[in-house]
Structure formats: C-alpha cells, structure tokens
Amino acid sequence: MTGSWRFFSVTCLIGALLLVVVPQLWIVATAFQQDGGAFTLRFRGGQMQVETADLVRFQPTLDTPTEAHLVRPDGFVITATQVEPGQTRIAASEPLTLTVPAAGTRFAFESPSTRFRVEQSVPLDIFGNQSTPVFKTRQDGEEIILLHEERSFLRLHDRVTSLSFSNFREFLSRSTYLEAIKNSLIVTLVATFLASVIAVPLAWLVARFTFRGRAVVIALITMASVTPPFLGAYAWRMLFGSTGLVTSALGLNWTILGIHGVIWVIMWLVYPLIFLMSLDSFTGVDPTLRESAMSLGAKPRKSFWSVEVPTCLPGIVTGLYMASMQAFSDFGTPFIISLDLVMLPKLVYAEFLNETGGNTSVASTGALLMVMIAMAFLGVQRLILAGRSFASVTARKQVLQTPECRTAILIYALAGTVIGLAFTPHVVIIITSFLEWRVGTVTSIPTLQNYVELFTSRMGAVFVSLSTATTATFLCLTIGLAIAYVIVRKGTRVVTPALNGVVMIPYIIPGTVFAIGFILAFNQPPLLLTGTWFILVLSYFIRMLPFTVKTGEAALYQIHPAVEDAAMSLGAKPARVFVQIVAPMMLSGAVTGMTLVFLRSVTELSSTILLYRPPWTPMSAVIFQNTVSPGANFGYAAAMSVLMMVILYVPLAFITLKRRSALQ
Amino acid sequence: MTARGIEVSTQGLKIDFGDFTALHPTDLTVRQGELFTLLGPSGCGKTTLLRCLAGFLKPSRGSVSFDGKDVSSLDPWDRGIGFVFQNYALWPTKTIFRNVAYGLEVRKTPKDEIERRVAETLDLVELTRARDQYPGELSGGMQQRAALARAIIIDPPLLLFDEPLSNLDAKLRVKLRHDIRALQSRLGLTAIYVTHDQEEALDISDRIAVMRQGEVCQVGTPREVYEAPQNAFVADFVGKASFLRGKSVAPGTFRLTGGAEIRGTFYPETTESNAECLFARPETIEITTPDDGQMFGTVADVSYLGPVTRYEVEVEEQRILVETRETLEVGSEVGLRLPDMQMFDSEPPAQKQEEPA
Q: Is the pLDDT of residue B192 over 80?
C-alpha cells in the first residue's frame, strides 16, 4: 500500500471514529448516567409549595405551606422550612455545607453524597419587567439559611451523576415505554409481513411473465420506493382522518387514526423495497437450475419450492430486513397518523426534545434500546442467511413466459391495486396543492396561490434541501467511493477492516438515534455543530456512507484489477490511476447508487427533524411541521411536496431510462 | 525502427505469498530482441514471474535486471515497459484513441505528436477505423490489437504478454500470434510471452522456459524442448507423449513392468539401472508386422485426426500412442519400432493438467 493511500485510510478511520463511534458512545454514556435529581419550590403569597410538574427522582412526603420533605429512592431526605416569607431553612439527612456562599443569582451547597445547585427565577411583574433575583445565604450548623425573593421559584438540582442501570429500569418499568416497544414491534412485524404478502408474489409474477406494461409496473414501483415517508401518512389522514374528505363525505364513524392506520401507511411505504429486492433475486435465478431439477423429474411445483425458493431466499430476506428496518425507524408516520399512539422513535424524540420533564438520559436509554432491537433484527437476518451464498451466476437470462388468461388477470389486478394505492397520496397531494386552504382545512376553490407563495417566499427550504443533499452526495461520491476502493484494493490487516466495520455502523442505527448521538457529541465547542447547515450535510453523508461504500464495492468488483496495472505500466502513478482510470469506471457503475443517495437525503426526516434549526430548515422539515401543526396552512407545503416529487422523479426517470438504453 | 530491445535477467528471484512460495529461486536470462516464452500449466508461477518483471509484484528475494542494471526497487510506472493483458484491460470509459494515447499523455507529449503517433500505431495494428469507438464496441481480436497498440506506443524496450490470446477463438489465435511475432521482430523488442498453450509456444518462440510448481524445468529452443525434453513432465506437457513403465536393466536394455525387454539405443545412454520410464513421440514410432520391431501390441483405440491417425496400442497392459498415416483396425496385432527413445528417472506426474483453451 502506498503512502498516500495509507494516509487516506488512516484519516478516514479517524474521521469515521469521530463521526460514527463517538456519538454512539455519548449515547451509551448518557444512558448509563443517572442524574442526582431535582425539585422546584414555589413561593407565592407567603406560602411554599412543591412544584409537582418538575420532580426528578425526588418525591415529596410532606408538603405544607411552611414545610416540605422530599425523599430520593436511595434514602436521601431533604427538608425545606419557610421560616418567614423570603427566608427558608434547608436541612438534610446529611450535613450540608455551602460551597458557593457568596450572595448572587446562584448558589451551591453540598453534602457528602450530593452537590446541589440552586437557581432562582421570578415571575414577570404585571408590567412585564423581570427583576434579577439575588440570594443571600448563611451556614447554620449543618443547615443552610437562604434569603430569597418572596415571590419566586427555587430549583434545587443535585448535579452528582452516577453510573446506573436505573434509566433502563425506569424505561422498562413505565408502562408508556413498554407500550412503545410493543407498538413499534407490532407495527414493524405486521407491516413488513403484509407488505411481503403483496410484494413477493407480484415480484415473482413480474419476473417470470411478459405482459403489456411490465416495464411501466417496474418503473412505477421504483418511483414509489423513493416516496417521502411523510407524504403518504398525511394524504391518508386527509382522506380518512377524523375530518377527512372521505370520512366526512360518507359520514363514516371509522377513521384511519390508530395503530391500524400506521400499519397501513407503513406497509405502502416499505413494499417497493421488498418488491425490488425480490424481483432482482427472481430474475437472477439461473434458469438452468430449474430446468435441471425438472429434467431430474421434479414437477414445476416441486422445482419451485426445492430449487427456486432457496436460491432466491437471500435476496428476499435481505429485502424484508431492509423493509422492517425502515418500518421500525420511520418517524413521520406515527406522528402524523396518530398523536396518542406511543412508538419508540416518537417517544425518544419527545423525551429528548421536551423542555419540561424531558430527560436526556431516558431518551438515550430509549435510543440504545432501539439500536439493540435493530441489531436483533440484523441478527435474525444473518441467522437465516447463514451458510447461504449470495452469489448466483446467471449463465442465461430468464425467458419470460406469456401468461395464461387467468394469470394475466391476476397480474393486472394485483399490480393495478398495488400501484393505485401506492400513488393515492401523490394524487391527493397534487390535487390539494391547487386548492385553497382556510384555517387548516382544504376548500374546493381552485387556486395557484400555493405555488405563488412557494416560489416567492418559501424557496429557502428548497435551497437548504438541495444544497445539503447535493453536498452530501458529493462527499459520498468522493470520500465514500475512495473508501470502497481502499477496502477492496488496498486491504491491510488492521486499518481497512476497521474502516470497513466503522463505516457500516450507521446502517443499523435508526435516524432518530443517530441524530441524538450527533447532538450529544457536537453541542459544545470546539465541535459546536448543532443547528448548523453542516450538521445536516454531515448526518446525510454519514448515514448514506454504508450504502455508498457497498455500491462502490459492487462497482469495483466489476472492474478487473488489470485495468489499473495497464495504466501503471504506461507510467501513471497510483493516485493518477485512481483519478483517471478507476474513478470514472466506478462512477459509471455507481450512478444509480449516487442518485439514490441524493434522493434519500432530500426525503430524510427522522434525523433531520432533530438536527435542523432555522434558518437551515429543509423541505422535509417544513412539510412535516405543516402536517403536524393543527390549523397550519398546508397549501404551500402541498405545493412544496409537488416540487419535491419533481426533484425526486426527474433524476430517477433519467437513470432508469439510461440504464434501459444501456441494456439494449 | 532499430533493434532496441533489452536483456532481461533474474538472479535468484523468489516470490512468496505468505507461506506459499509461488516462485522458487530462479536464474533466467532473456536475450536482447528475443521472444521468450514462459510455458506451463496453471498455477506454475509463470504469470507471477511476469508480473514481477513488470514491477507489479516485489521479489521476496533475489533481483531483476534490465541490461545488467538492478530494477527490483523500481515501481511499475518507472519501468517503461509494455504489458499486454489476458483480458485486454482496455478502459471502457475511453475511446480507442484515448486508450492508446494514454501512455503519451502521461509522458506529457505534445498534442500534435500524440495525434500523429496514435495514428501511426493504430495503422500498425490495422485499427485506424476503430479510432473513435469504445472498447465495448469491438470484437475480442480487435480489442487485443488495441491493447497491443496501447502497450507499444510508448516505445518500450520490453513487451510482456500475459496469455494475450487465450480469450480468443482458435483461428484468430493463430493469426494474431503471427501478427504479434512479426511486429515484435520488426520493432526489435525483447518480448516475454506467458502461455499455457504449448502449440503457441512452439510456434512463435525463440526460446521457451517450461515451468512447473514455481520452478523452471527446462530452458531451450522449441526444437530442444520438444525433441530433447529433460524430464518426463516436459515431455508430457509439450506435445503428445508415449510412456512405458519399467526399469532399465542393462545398457541398451529396458524391461517393461510386464516382463518384456526392449533393446535399442536410448538417450541418455543408460549406464545405471535407475530409469523407470521410457518415452517416445507418437509420430516417431513406426508400425511394422507383429514379428518385426522392438515390441508387440494390439490396437486398442483409433482416433482419426485428418493428417494422421492416432492409435492407442496396448503393450503388456500399458498403452502407448502412435501416430501414423497407416490404416489399422481395432484388435490388429502390430509390431512397433522406436528409433528415438528416451529414458527418464520417473514417470510424468499422474494428472496432466489440461487447461481449457
């Protein structure tokens, strides 16, 4: 390995450790970290009261207007006694010592096992002015005397953190969390199962039979595979929600809101993936395998089950795995379809972002659980595929059969239903983008106003989406493909396997978790990235890196190493060989993959929603926020969704056509 | 162009891949302007040796010299030699013109000179009309000619060929190997040619090195290698061979395993009784009447090949090949006369490694 490549791979490894491993370690560290707890005392009208909305680990055992006792699960007791208005005495089961005794806006005290920080805040006065409250403190034996404003909130926060499993215990003992795990698993398994029931047979029919419109079916399902996840949810809610168009028109008292709706929407989200993967493996089966089984006496049914299915299984199982991961980590659908259905990504998001009562540690614990569940899914996939070879060398192309009448009807019915339902959201969104919205509901008045608004004052989001996705794609193209090259061609004993392992990690990390790790790791100097344009770019880049590297590797396996030797023997040095010979060849093999990186970056929601801060708001966040804010004017968001479809489908159509012409 | 080839030599060159020794210490000298062939079955180390000469592999021990100068530490891009690959290795994203021009572009040759020299070189390999086509649009033979053009345009003193014709069909192979030979002697280059096809090697080489399991078994002209193989492996690998098992019992006498004794002149002259194998080329064996000749046998199998007919003759439960224009029936009793016989210490390796053409 030449020096420059070694330098490159070591740099990449360090970068990947920083951007992939460090955020995850932050999550782990946070998950196992237990905060000492906090409580707030409210003073008003000469009375003292424990604020029940802000209790972390502390529970009041006595709460009178002059005295409050609070107990922590470890037995630590703290007592606050109002001596007179504006003067409070604090005692505890351990001797207390002032550590920051000076008068000021803050002060701190500690005991052998605690380290409290006290903050005072004062409600605005009737003129809206806020005074700066000042403490005066005094040590009194083993107790603290505290002088404060008569009307104020005192927040006592024990900042001693301890290593503990208690977050897990809390996560697993609270019924909402268990409910979230249960719901997430039900949605994932049922949606994936239903999607595969539709997608796998259809894929088999399309792979084996020739019929008019076959290419159109494949193209439309390919299009459906890049549909932004939140569009479907919103459109279905618009049709079948509690005030939905169809529900009100027909006077139904049934709505799509609920777990069944989430399953329905996610099923239409993930089936294209299963269809495309299954189609690939059915098409890839060497027909001579089946023919040799038949020549040995196996009837068609027997040869199907004994030869065809086992050969195709790896592709189908991989498709199912990818679909279940998409279903499991989908963030938008449960939010839009059902606000009171708790699911893991939603809960983790809420715990993380909620400003009162939220708990970063618990959110990290949930994040960690999500990763564990994702790993369990991966484990199951690996277990099923263990010992099965992926390589299927096709000696001869499948000859497509002409279907009998009955089969043809089945194909058209199935394909028609599937495509019709998959594209219902698109039609709904396109129609509503030309209708006027009033106070959060759509009217039947046609208008172009939505587009006017979009193009005159809402182009910022379009710019953010395009610039972040383009930059991320460019990074994938350069760094991702170079990493693939190093891994395949310049393998070393330690660095490249490590690099390979690290860049594949984001593959199993759900977007929500990924974003939390990024925020935890990069929210303080010198790595203050949270809320910037760069963090969006970095997260798209890193999340797409596994896919890019795999695409690059696949492209490289098609390139015989001799083409590099040929250039070297003509006098080109390795760096030049890579740039002038290998890179152009890899690119032509990886064009489809790179387009998908771009499309997925544009539609990415689950990490975007945690990472973005205005003014760097991408389209996906704008559209999503509009779908979940009650009373929001969805009009321009609908127009923006239509623009997004154009941005998605034009490049997709281009590469599909190009690939077809390359095949001819 | 004048003869400007170089002399290539290796000194104790050894190449290991981990624990596996792909090439045992080897001393070879390829003379200036010579077409030298490395011939052997797959896995014999011939391609490894070639790639080491090109600089793609670094020797584990020993050295490679060009015109007496040690080049072992030179990188491939500094060696300035031409390499023609089995799979052509043309760059599919570049036109034939750009493929051929690449070596000159790397050397920062002026544009008009590149234009002129590519045109000349394409003319030389009869590809002028394919200039603006992409490799994928050309036939295998045309692609290999383009690859040849790409290699020779940098005026290399040494051309290396790694089984350049094995992906082509039989007729084209014969034509192209003569084209390569003609071009090489016209340009006066030294050429080293790797192949597993013994017919090809005999046809075009000045000298051949026959290799087996990482070792060179014999170096010689095609005639020497074919007519005077130094061991049973070379005899077996190059051309068709007839072998008989037995033991030499006295000078001029060889006793077959079955007991019959053969008398005659053997090469090498048997002085010790350690030879265990008798060898003759099928076409040198003459067929006579059963009461004549040095041994008797029964025709067991007949293959009509056109120019000759190949018979398998059973001699005391062993079978030997005989090629002759005579017509015989299966079961005929014949006498055999072997004017050119050779003895080897051991039999050829049990499995002759056949490679797909």
A: yes
